Amino acid sequence: SRDSWEKDVPPGVVTGLAWTASGGDILFVESSLSKGKGNLTLTGNLGDVMKESAVLALEYIKSHAEELNIDPVIAEQNNIHVHVPEGAIPKDGPSAGVTMVTSMASIFTGRPVKPRVAMTGEITLRGKVLPVGGIKEKILAAKRAGILEIILSKDNQKDVNEIKNIYVEGLTFHYVENIMNVLELALK
Amino acid sequence: SRDSWEKDVPPGVVTGLAWTASGGDILFVESSLSKGKGNLTLTGNLGDVMKESAVLALEYIKSHAEELNIDPVIAEQNNIHVHVPEGAIPKDGPSAGVTMVTSMASIFTGRPVKPRVAMTGEITLRGKVLPVGGIKEKILAAKRAGILEIILSKDNQKDVNEIKNIYVEGLTFHYVENIMNVLELALK
Amino acid sequence: SRDSWEKDVPPGVVTGLAWTASGGDILFVESSLSKGKGNLTLTGNLGDVMKESAVLALEYIKSHAEELNIDPVIAEQNNIHVHVPEGAIPKDGPSAGVTMVTSMASIFTGRPVKPRVAMTGEITLRGKVLPVGGIKEKILAAKRAGILEIILSKDNQKDVNEIKNIYVEGLTFHYVENIMNVLELALK
Amino acid sequence: SRDSWEKDVPPGVVTGLAWTASGGDILFVESSLSKGKGNLTLTGNLGDVMKESAVLALEYIKSHAEELNIDPVIAEQNNIHVHVPEGAIPKDGPSAGVTMVTSMASIFTGRPVKPRVAMTGEITLRGKVLPVGGIKEKILAAKRAGILEIILSKDNQKDVNEIKNIYVEGLTFHYVENIMNVLELALK
Amino acid sequence: SRDSWEKDVPPGVVTGLAWTASGGDILFVESSLSKGKGNLTLTGNLGDVMKESAVLALEYIKSHAEELNIDPVIAEQNNIHVHVPEGAIPKDGPSAGVTMVTSMASIFTGRPVKPRVAMTGEITLRGKVLPVGGIKEKILAAKRAGILEIILSKDNQKDVNEIKNIYVEGLTFHYVENIMNVLELALK
Amino acid sequence: SRDSWEKDVPPGVVTGLAWTASGGDILFVESSLSKGKGNLTLTGNLGDVMKESAVLALEYIKSHAEELNIDPVIAEQNNIHVHVPEGAIPKDGPSAGVTMVTSMASIFTGRPVKPRVAMTGEITLRGKVLPVGGIKEKILAAKRAGILEIILSKDNQKDVNEIKNIYVEGLTFHYVENIMNVLELALK
Ligand SMILES: [Ca+2]
Ligand SMILES: [Ca+2]
Ligand SMILES: [Ca+2]
Ligand SMILES: [Ca+2]
Ligand SMILES: [Ca+2]
Ligand SMILES: [Ca+2]
Ligand SMILES: [Ca+2]
Ligand SMILES: [Ca+2]
Ligand SMILES: [Ca+2]
Ligand SMILES: [Ca+2]
Ligand SMILES: [Ca+2]
Ligand SMILES: [Ca+2]
Q1: CB-based contact (8 Å) between A45 and chain B?
Q2: Distance of CA F83 to CAs E55, E124, F42, F96, Å?
Q3: Which residues on chain C are in Cβ contact (under 8 Å) with B87?
């Protein structure tokens, strides 16, 4: 079913944009911590490429912990669990990369995400944000869900420019090159 | 075969509602603890999505242990086993999420579940209760089994409203948004 | 080939009733202990559901160790191995649950099983004994093998009642609701 | 290719009888120890049932270590490796059980196997030796390979009795019920 | 999409040459370190042969750590993660071997790779650089991407010699026999 | 492509003879050590039987470490990695057994292999060298590659004897029964 933006979400919850068989939709990525030894658990009916996005996101976080002001003790003495509702729907592809890294940075720092912000983009290990597909459908879904700001790869700007103005008015687009830009824009 | 509600069930036993090829049915989720290191074991011929529900439920419990008044020593020094009878029947889907988290909270706190209460709903990592399908069939099965109170996602209220009154009279419905509401309603 | 009851079997050996493609048969479940850390090993060409029965049986034993008078040191400092001869025959289904839990309780307590007793029934984590199929074929096989007492779920009594008297005379049936009843009836 | 009996084989090497697509053959089971923590490694292109025979054999050895005069320190501080030449030929079935348990007992005790002895039979966890198939083909192969004594399950005596005398003259048959009988007959 | 060379890349990022269904392309191999016990994690939708290249590269690095001036403490107290963007594209084959070993040597030594250098070649455990296929397509892609220097196996020189001069002018080719030559040429 | 013998190869590199879809070829087996706990890693696109050859070779080495003058500390405090170039070619079968055990013995003792020596043969756990197929094709390939001495199982002598003299002149054949003979002949 169609989801809407939600207010006052706790740290670890981030809104992504997904492109599904039935069109665009927003999706939430949720992270939580529990006492442990730094292991990663994943749920939400995720395909192999999407699971790799989560592994990649966690490696990025771990190797940039200092720049991100993450307490190393928290990262070492907790397991992190990442869930993408809804369990009945298989999900795959690399485009939730930015959403996953933002969710993990949010739960590790305790900083929640700003309201009405959504994002989509593949990440790389050195922090680049790569363009993804389905931009038009994702933007329509974001608008319908009450999103006001969208974070995208700089290389997706051309895709946004091709959309009729009526579909994008009221939306603010942030075009980024690096994960650090995403986190600055998204975290409170 | 058709099951009925049972009285004086021990902590860890919770009644869920299932939607099977042969119509609705009630199903039990059972949890037990044994000395160990916090591992989770699952039995009952469960599919991947249902197994993920159990992982998700345990992560929720672990990251909300304090709010749930769970002794951290009990959670760390025991393994938890979750079983869904009956072994010959394959089971899958996310709708046992609330039943699993209630079963785990019950065994960890030692608080049994109130009699004649059943539930169905998907859970998310931050505690949301999402709507599920097969509501009409599940309610008919619950009534047939002697259930008096049913806990559902708020987003399933519209599905209940569409059922003819004759099928729901005598039943009390609790529409919830968060797992914490489920636990307050279900645990003694 | 057809098996017969055996006398003076050591602790850990229990007679079950199986329903195979070629009719009913008795089958033995054997358990042994060896120095270790509480791990479970399974052999005998067992399918997934039958393996789950063994996991379930061991969890039941572990969480009821005190009631069963099992020395916790024995359970923690030994591995348990469960074997179901004969290796060339694939075996599956939940109906060996009571046989497995009895075999494990026997080896952990050192109490052998009474002679000429056989059993069949699914178990649940809280100790319920559920009814199983193929009752008529199993009883014929038990009689042929020289069995005198049969332990079954209370919910299988109706199936026994439907069998012509000539096939059941000389047999004593014990209808049980809980695993504890099985162990009281079967262990010396 | 056809193999022959071999003299002065070291501890751990035992001659079994196999029934293959191209008729009967003798096969060797070889075991070796190396410093470790009691793990079992298997090679030789073995199918699942044959791998289970090895697990079963090792469990039998471990739970009867004292009766077998096996130094517990040797069993705990070594890994055991079991190999069945020849690697290009897939092998399966339970009939190498007695050969495997004899090979393991031989390497753990340092006692080699008597010359010109071969064996075939399934084992169970409590030490029973069960009958196996292909007896006629196996006996012909044993004779061709220069074997003089053959160890079999008591329940295979009827199969030997059906073979024409000309094929079995010069061979001594030992019919056993228990693994302990096998080891007494086979080990020097 | 087509990629270009990038300036000021951090240690661990190396440009490889790939031969895909849609022609040649450059690809990046990225490595990062995070506190751990020397484990290797791989992402980027890699096939089995490409994963083996990474294992091989790490083994080469580990057994030549001293020659490579790698601080043994860094290698032992960190996990290494290797990623090959882009996650939606399956990648396989041995030709990224030199790129992977260079990426790992770069992150372990902290020495970045020289700009506008790309490479392709299979590696062996003793450090040989073996020739690979698709040389013409790879060189065209390298030129298009702004690469100026290309490192190849000496056994691929004949393939370069067969390409028309117009396609290779402005490019410098380095033909190597050993991984050590690659690292001397590529690392700053 | 066709390979040639190589001079001054380091310890751990051994020349084997392979029989492929496109005829005979020589192949190299490479081993290296790195600090660790005695684990074995395998690369080179190896099938299950060939992987088992490596496991078998290492077990042989471990259980004969003293006879082979291998420092037990080196074997216990290092991981061993075995690679068979070239990664794009799937390889399988037991005939690289002697090559693998020679490669491992070479790296553990630091003794390189004599030049222009190649070998082929299956091994068993007690050190027997079994005959293998494709002898004619392998010998032609060895000669073409500049090999002067070939080590084979004694049971392959009949296969060599059937080859026309012109194809074998200039080659010295060593027929062996045991791995120890191989190592004496091959290691410097
Ligand atoms: Ca949705
Ligand atoms: Ca929804
Ligand atoms: Ca039912
Ligand atoms: Ca039932
Ligand atoms: Ca039978
Ligand atoms: Ca039998
Ligand atoms: Ca043979
Ligand atoms: Ca042979
Ligand atoms: Ca590209
Ligand atoms: Ca790109
Ligand atoms: Ca070649
Ligand atoms: Ca080559």
Answers
A1: yes
A2: 10, 7, 6, 12
A3: 49, 52-53, 56, 93-94, 97, 122
pLDDT tens by residue, D102-156: 999 999 999 999 999 999 999 999 999 999 999 999 999 999 999 999 999 999 9
C-beta atoms of D49 and C10 within 8 A? no
Classify the C-alpha dihedral B57-B61-B64-B67 as positive or negative: positive
| DSSP reduced 3-state for A82 | strand
Q: Which residues surround ligand 1, an ion (CB under 5 A)?
A: A 3, 25
Instruction: Name chain E contacts of A55, Cβ cutoff 8 Å.
Output: 41, 43, 81
Interval between CA E104 and ligand 10 midpoint (Å): 22
Largest distance between two CA atoms of chain F: 50
Give Cα separations from A9 to A107, A114, B184, E37, F78 (angstroms): 12, 9, 22, 36, 50
Cβ B65 vs Cβ B21: under 8 Å: no
Chain E residues close to A126, C-beta within 8 Å: 9-10, 12-13, 30, 32
On whether any CB of chain C is under 8 Å from the CB of D42, the answer is no
CA gap F156, F136 in Å, rounded: 10
- Give the span between the Cα atoms of A173 and A122, in whole angstroms: 17
Long-range Cβ contact pairs of F177-180 (< 8 A, separation 24 or more): F177/F128, F177/F129, F177/F153, F178/F127, F178/F128, F178/F129, F179/F60, F179/F98, F179/F101, F179/F123, F179/F127, F179/F128, F179/F129, F180/F67, F180/F127
Measured distance CA(A52)–CA(A55) in Å, rounded: 5
Helix or strand holding residue C51 (H, E): helix C48-63
* Other Cβ atoms within 10 Å of F39 Cβ, number: 11
Please check whether residue F138 is in contact with residue F19, taking contact to mean a CB–CB distance below 8 angstroms.
yes
User: So what's the pLDDT on residue C1?
Assistant: 58
Q: Does D49 touch chain C (CB under 8 A)?
A: yes
Contacts of D111 (CB under 8 A, 6+ apart): D11, D105, D187, D188
Is E91 considered catalytic here? no
* A41 and chain B in contact, CB less than 8 A: yes
Q: Is C31 on the interface with D (CB under 8 A)?
A: yes
Provide DSSP, C129-148: EE--S-HHHHHHHHHHTT--
Q: Could you tell me the two tokens for C55?
A: 């996991």
pLDDT (tens digit, 9 = 90+) per residue, E151-165?
999 999 999 999 999
Which alpha helices (H) appear in chain D, and where do they start and end?
48-63, 72-76, 97-109, 135-144, 157-161, 165-168, 179-186
- Ligand 3 centre to CA of B85 (Å) is 8
- DSSP states of A119-160: E--EE-TT-BEE--S-HHHHHHHHHHTT--EEEEEGGGHHHH
**Do the Cβ atoms of C43 and D94 come within 8 Å?**
no
Tokens of B136: 């009409």
- For chain A, the straight-line distance linking the first and the last C-alpha, in angstroms and rounded, comes to 28
Structure token pair of residue D110:
């340092």
Q: Residues of chain A whose pLDDT is less than 70?
A: 1-2
The ipTM is: 0.92
Residues ≥6 apart with Cβ < 8 Å to F126? D9, D10, D12, D13, D30, D32
Residue of B133, A142, D87, D122 lying closest to F52 (CA atoms): D87
Q: Read off the pLDDT of residues D29-84 as tens digits, 9 standing for 90 and up.
A: 999 999 999 999 999 999 999 999 999 999 999 999 999 999 988 988 999 999 99
Nearest C-alpha of chain A: how many angstroms from E182? 22
Measured distance CA(A101)–CA(A104) in Å, rounded: 5
Q: Are D98 and D129 in contact (CB under 8 A)?
A: yes
Q: Note the pTM of the prediction, 2 decimals.
A: 0.93
Closest among A111, A109, A12, A106 to A69, alpha carbons compared: A109
- Measure C153 CA to nearest chain D CA, in Å: 28
**B18 alpha carbon to ligand 3 midpoint, in Å?**
9
**Cβ–Cβ under 8 Å, residues F35 and E66:** no
